[in-house]
Structures are given as structure tokens and as C-alpha cells.
């Protein structure tokens, strides 16, 4: 059985000069040297074309990336990919990173990154507005500029932090493009999943039980569990809790509320219950998280 294509394979096959981690890669000039056959990769990749054109096939779907359609691509491990065409002189902003790179982060950040990466599991391709396309292109460029000037002894630690920041920004921006038509080619199951995600986004503070979401979607709790497990490799309860956790982290980092106020705002019974929930997920108490973040 052929080994999954790795970031090291990209570097070697494309003859890219790269002195940093073999678990993380970024570039803006796209090589026209590419694999002619389809392959399965073991990494995540995010990016878009700013000049020129790329045509590829991802899990059987042909995708075009250029600055006319303002398309943004998300590729995940073990998806089948085949590059069909790259115009000479094509430029873009692309990052590649694998699970090993994520796992080198501390456990709390790694947990949050997993959530960000899983949220868009049912989409590979987003057609952005001109404003959002320009914003992401500039954001990628600024992060690339920083990565190029970092000293080697600080490079990997800083790359972790910059990647997390970038993924958070992408996650927030792509939320507005998350709607999927029930009649689309993606199918009924994913349409139901999308409605579940929307319901969670709107109701996770007031409604923390699976039954509420199953009844709202007119499906059984067992079917909802199976759907979320198949599509997101997660459970409905875990997904709801991750939404609560994201909000709690945002409020802690914002610093406008104390921990008691945050617990009350998120409708926990008391501060102790909130603290136990937070520590179980993040391996830090809310107070410890704030100290680690700001001091």
C-alpha cells in the first residue's frame, strides 16, 4: 500500500528550498512541478490563488482556484487529490501542516485547533466576497513576512502561534459561508448536519442537551449522534461543549468579565461547575488560563 503523500514529498518533488520544519510549509510562488497522478496526503492545506490559475480534483470534485472566482481551498488529511493544471507564474498563499505540528502545541491549544479544523469538515471550497478575499490575502502575506524574518531558534514556537491565530481568523470569516442548500449535491445528511451546526451556534448557551437539537431537527437522538460521528468524528454533546468552551475562552481573553460573571453569562449553575467544565477540557482552571495567557 502506498504511503500517504507528506509535506516532505512536496518539498522534495517541487525542489523547494526549505530549512524549517518538515511538518509545516508555506509558500506564495507555486511550482509548476507537480505529481501527475492522484495521491492521498497526510496533511492539512489552506490557501488561495492571487495570480494565475490552478485546477485540481479533490475527492472527485474538480475545483478551480484563481483571483476571478476568489476561491478559498481547505484540504484535509486522507482526501484524494490530483493536480490537473498549474499556469506558469501562478502565485498564491498556501500553508501545509500535519497532525504532528499541531500535537507539538500544548494540549489546550491543540484541542481548540482540532475543533477549528473539524468545523468546516463538510466543505472544501469557499467562494469569497472581494472584501474577504483581499483580507485573507493580506493576512496570509503579513504572516508569511513574519515567518521569513524570525530567527531559527524561535521559529517553530512562533509558527505555532501564528498558525493558530490564522486558523482562528479563517474560522470566524468562513462562518458566514457555512450555509448549505438542502438540495445541493452535498446531500441530505450534510444538510442536516449544517442545520445542527447552525442551531448550536444560535442556542448553545441556553440549550446544552442533545434532545433539544434532535427535536428541532425532527430526528432521533441516535440518528443525530451517528450523523455527527460520521461527518465530524465527534459527538453532538462534545460539539456543543466545544462551542461553549470557545465562547468561554473568548470572554476570558477579552477580560471584560470576571470568572463569576462568565459562569453566569454562560448559564452554568455556579462558578464551581463552570471551573470544573473548563479544567476538564483545557487542563487548566479559568484563573490559570488567564495567568498563562496574560503573564
Automatic annotation (TrEMBL):
Top-rank taxon: Bacteria
Keywords: DNA-binding, Transcription, Transcription regulation
An example Gene Ontology molecular-function term: sequence-specific DNA binding
Signal peptide boundaries: none
Domain HTH araC/xylS-type: residue ranges: 194-292
SMART domains from the UniProt entry: HTH_ARAC (SM00342)
Coiled-coil segments on the chain, per record: none
InterPro entries cross-referenced by the UniProt entry: Homeodomain-like_sf (IPR009057), HTH_AraC (IPR018060)
Keyword DNA-binding: yes
Name the record gives this protein: AraC-type DNA-binding protein
Amino acid at each position: 500500500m502506498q504511503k500517504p503523500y507528506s509535506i516532505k514529498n512536496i518539498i522534495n518533488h517541487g525542489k523547494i528550498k526549505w530549512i524549517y520544519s518538515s511538518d509545516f510549509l508555506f509558500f506564495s510562488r507555486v511550482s509548476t512541478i507537480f505529481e501527475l497522478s492522484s495521491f492521498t496526503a497526510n496533511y492539512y492545506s489552506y490557501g488561495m490563488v492571487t495570480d494565475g490559475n490552478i485546477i485540481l480534483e479533490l475527492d472527485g470534485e474538480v475545483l478551480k482556484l484563481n483571483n476571478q472566482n476568489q476561491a478559498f481551498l481547505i484540504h484535509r488529511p486522507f482526501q484524494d487529490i490530483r493536480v490537473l493544471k498549474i499556469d506558469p507564474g501562478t502565485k498564491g498563499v498556501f500553508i501545509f501542516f500535519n497532525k504532528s505540528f499541531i500535537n507539538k502545541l500544548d494540549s489546550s491549544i491543540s484541542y481548540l485547533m482540532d475543533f477549528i479544523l473539524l468545523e468546516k469538515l463538510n466543505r472544501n471550497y469557499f467562494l469569497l466576497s472581494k472584501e474577504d478575499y483581499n483580507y485573507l490575502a493580506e493576512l496570509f502575506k503579513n504572516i508569511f513576512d513574519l515567518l521569513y524574518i524570525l530567527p531559527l531558534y524561535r521559529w517553530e514556537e512562533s509558527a505555532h502561534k501564528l498558525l493558530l491565530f490564522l486558523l482562528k481568523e479563517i474560522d470566524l470569516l468562513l462562518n458566514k459561508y457555512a450555509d448549505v442548500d438542502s438540495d445541493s449535491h452535498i446531500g441530505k445528511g450534510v444538510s442536516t448536519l449544517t442545520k445542527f451546526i447552525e442551531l448550536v451556534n444560535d442556542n448553545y448557551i441556553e440549550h446544552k442537551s442533545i434532545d433539544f437539537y434532535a427535536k428541532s431537527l425532527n430526528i432521533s437522538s441516535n440518528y443525530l449522534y451517528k450523523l455527527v460521528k460520521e461527518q465530524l468524528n465527534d459527538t453532538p454533546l462534545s460539539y456543543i461543549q466545544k462551542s461553549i468552551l470557545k465562547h468561554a475562552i473568548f470572554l476570558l481573553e477579552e477580560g471584560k468579565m470576571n470568572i463569576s460573571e462568565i459562569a453566569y453569562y454562560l448559564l452554568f449553575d455556579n462558578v464551581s461547575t463552570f471551573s470544573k467544565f473548563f479544567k476538564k477540557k483545557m487542563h487548566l482552571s479559568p484563573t490559570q488560563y488567564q495567568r498563562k495567557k496574560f503573564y
